[in-house]
Amino acid sequence: MKVSIITINYNGFNDTCELIDSLKKFETMPFEIIVVDNASAGNDGPQLAEKYPDVKVVCSKSNLGFAGGNNLGLKEASGDFFLFMNNDMLIKGPFLKPLVDRLLSSENIGLVSPKIKYTYAPDMIQYAGYSSMSSIMLRNNLIGLNQHDAPQFSNAMPTDSAHGACMMTRRECLDRTGKMTEIYFLFYEEHDWSERFREAGYEVWYEPASTVYHKESMTIKRGTPLRLFYLTRARIMYARRNCHGFCKFMACSYQLLLAIPKQTLLFLVHGDFSMVKALWKGFFNGLCKKID
Asked: Residue 222: pLDDT band by 50, 70, 90 thresholds?
């Protein structure tokens, strides 16, 4: 059995090198590494290919976003299992086998994510599963977020969503679920894909016997208009794709009449007009963009 590890590089040469080095140092299960350079501004792709001749480096001519980059990497994958992993992550020990074992433990399990901690605070949890997505507010919570690791986070269990920073599936599952949709570009892809897995009859699991460490948001910084635009846009698109009937109407209305006006007021109080612009641009873009 072999795992194809797919990671996306976008102007993150040093982070990608650190990830590759940690995988080579600690992982013992057979694996291959596929790096998709998502049209970085510099010469990242050729430099990575030169530094790591045993790594498959795919250079995209344009930035395909999160799902597009991962789907491009899938074309080069020869493994029995596919692991999608952010390039701003590290490992400190073998981590693939528990994920593979969890997928093999039941044919009903199609997608699994490990325990995720922070590199800057190795005992602090970022992800120990997701709570259920609220049908109207379209929000869910990271279980264990910013809490010290404790026994209650050591139980493998079904969860609402995999974590996009690190998630694994089996080759045969993709025949039923299909690849990640590329309409979002950034954010909500893993939530949407988790829905596709459930629709196909699979469960999504959290596996704490495997641990990875996340630098968190190295590619697109928090508190920026760009991040707010894509988050707002993705939330509306997710509602249009995954909510139905009256629930869809209520979810979109909640964003338009309550959530976005509240955020707008807060930004105006602080004189942050660029965030107001990004917020409303994201909403209308998500409302009008083709989602099929």
From this structure: low
DSSP structure class, residue 99 = H
Residue 164 near residue 189, CB atoms below 8 Å = yes
pLDDT tens per residue across span 50-104:
999 999 999 999 999 999 999 999 999 999 999 999 999 999 999 999 999 999 9
CB atoms within 10 A of CB 150: 11
Cα distance between residue 271 and residue 192, in whole Å: 34
Instruction: Please enumerate in sequence order all residues whose Cβ is within 8 A of that of 175, keeping only pairs 6 or more positions apart, or say none.
Output: none
Amino acid at 41: A
**Rounded distance between C-alpha atoms, residue 97 and residue 139, angstroms:** 31
Contact call for residues 260 and 283 (beta carbons, < 8 A): yes
The whole-model pTM stands at: 0.94
Q: Tokens 């605070």: give the residue.
A: 121
Residues 6+ apart with CB under 8 A from 49: 55, 57
> Domain coordinates of the chain in residue numbers?
3-214, 225-288
Find the radius of gyration of the CA atoms of the chain: 19
Homologous superfamily (CATH) of 3-214 is Spore Coat Polysaccharide Biosynthesis Protein SpsA; Chain A (3.90.550.10)
Q: What angle do CA 77, 82, 83 make, to 5 degrees?
A: 120
Q: Per residue in 119-158, pLDDT tens?
A: 999 999 999 999 999 888 888 999 999 999 999 999 999 9
